[in-house]
Amino acid sequence: MSSTATFSRIDMRLPMLGVVLSVLTLLAIQAGLSGLHSVDDPLADWRIHVQIGLSVITYLLAVFYVRRVGVGNLWVIVGVGLALRLILSVSHPMLSSDMYRYVWDGRVALAGINPYLYVPADEALRFLRDDFIFTNMNRPDYAHTIYPPFAQMFFALVGLISPTLTAMRLAIVALDGVSIWALIRLLDLAGRDRALVLIYAWNPLVFWEFGNNAHIDALAVCLILLSLLVMFSRAKNWAGPVFGGAVLTKFLPLVIAPALWPRGGWRAATGSALLIAILYTVYAIWGHAGWQVLGFLGEYRHEEQLDSGSGYWIPAVLGQMVSLPHGAGTAFGALAAGLLGVLGAWIAFVRRPMELPDVALACVWLVMALLLLLTPHYAWYYAWLSAFAVLAPVWPAIWLSSAAMLLYEPGLPPHVVLPSVLFVSTLALVWFDRRAVLSTQGNS
Questions:
Q1: Region at 7 (left for phi over 0; alpha for psi -120 to 50; beta for the rest)
Q2: HEC readout, the chain
Q3: What pLDDT was estimated at residue 45?
Q4: According to the model, what pLDDT value does residue 36 have?
Q5: What span, in angstroms and rounded, lies between the C-alpha atoms of 391 and 302?
Q6: What is the pLDDT of residues 396-419, one digit of tens each?
Q7: What is the 8-class DSSP label of residue 347?
Q8: Chain centroid, CA 398 distance in Å
């Protein structure tokens, strides 16, 4: 009798952590709403970041509990994860304004105009302007859209249903729900505890970025996971086109291609390449857009200070001690590409992961290496790492994919102090957890 009571008492710890996480999220929303009614309210800004920071701590406790104790009601985990996303989806965008551009791009496409042709402020698009979407968009007067063709198709599809922020958010939340389902199926295929889906479902970075900010990265994550599901099923011939859709949503997934190569081979690679070539050709022909289909990509490199090198963490740190030579950013970018290429080749042709846990761990290596070298200072670039951390639950990946919320902390240099805290702590965890990082054994 006493042992049953003890088990029940222990089993309630995870639901209670879910309640704490929900309350902290509601308090952060309230802090954000209070900030709307004042100009430059530092107290509201401070409160929202404190609540998010406490959410990350609560999340890490929940992950520790699930990994060590192995107890977790799947309905509670999924229910809390979806509830958090839905709660955030009805609040105003607090941390990013990107979704306004999503709605705008969909509106332009549905008007029969190639979204790559004009910046939003162009006179040719005057008839599409309003006092809400257009006025809240970032970079309306100088930036062509940067989002690839598959993302553009998604924007148009959502716009066809309802050209509103609400529809865009609900669509993103629905995609994230599919991602959670796919992760559960992948955990089954890997022979691992379904409760590990908490690593993704309860990650504050993930549910804030996809529930509140509705970042298109959710579509990329969903397609990556579906491509893994297909790859490990009888219909694996479709894995290539599905993965190609992920690359055409957000270019970064291309970095994990070497981890998928041993399993997918030339057939998957050809399927991906064909889809990418076809869709880019269609958009290049439409309205004679040509090379404009690359959008703001080139200018974005300059805006993010990647050409000077100060936009990368490692050169930015070095720049605090010595003067960087001209072309440092280009040289470092080439070095980073080379290092990623060597790592990718080693994974594809030497390590050759075939089983799902090994493939997932190889994806963790590649994504963490990419983030370490490129060090994007936008937090949502780190969210997709959390999906691989479910299947290869190593602490450096779990930490990096949640603690990236630190990048929203105001008042600190974005390319030096915050990345230093984030990546030095991650590298320390890599050292202390190196046996797990180098092998999937013991990470069930």
A1: alpha
A2: CHHHHHHHHHHCHHHHHHHHHHHHHHHHHHHHHHHHCCCCCHHHHHHHHHHHHHHHHHHHHHHHHHHHHCCCCHHHHHHHHHHHHHHHHCCCCCCCCHHHHHHHHHHHHHCCCCCCCCCCCCHHHHHHCCCCHHHHCCCCCCCCCCCCHHHHHHHHHHHHHCCCHHHHHHHHHHHHHHHHHHHHHHHHHHCCCHHHHHHHHCCHHHHHHHHHCCCCHHHHHHHHHHHHHHHCCCCHHHHHHHHHHHHCCCCHHHHHHHHHHHHHHHHHHHHHHHHHHHHHHHHHHHHHCHHHHHCCHHHHHHHCCCCCCCCCHHHHHHHCCCCCCCCHHHHHHHHHHHHHHHHHHHHHHHHCCCCHHHHHHHHHHHHHHHHHHHCCCCHHHHCCHHHHHHHCCCHHHHHHHHHHHHHHCCCCCCCCHHHHHHHHHHHHHHHHCHHHHHCCCCCC
A3: 64
A4: 44
A5: 36
A6: 999 999 999 888 765 555 568 888
A7: I
A8: 13
Cα–Cα dist 378/205, whole Å: 11
- The structure tokens 């050759």 sit at 352
b/e code 391-425 from CB counts within 10 Å (16+ = b): bbbbbbbbbbbbbbbbbbbeeeebbeebbbebbee
Name the residue range of residue 76's domain: 2-438
pLDDT number for residue 30: 82
The tokens describing 392, both together, are 């290869």
* pLDDT band per the 50, 70, 90 thresholds, residue 170: very high
What domain count does the chain have?
1
Rounded to a whole number, what is the distance in angstroms from the first to the last CA of the chain?
A: 30
Structure tokens at 402: 């949640």
pTM > 0.90: yes
Cα(50)–Cα(304) distance, rounded to whole angstroms? 27
Q: Is residue 316 part of a domain?
A: yes
**Using an 8 Å Cβ cutoff, are 387 and 225 in contact?**
yes
Quick: pLDDT tens for 286-319.
999 999 998 877 777 777 777 777 788 888 888 8
444 in a structural domain: no
Q: Is residue 312 in a domain?
A: yes
Pick the range with the lowest mean pLDDT from 143-157, 235-249, 308-322. 308-322
* Domain-located, residue 223: yes
Q: For position 101, what pLDDT does the model report? A: 96
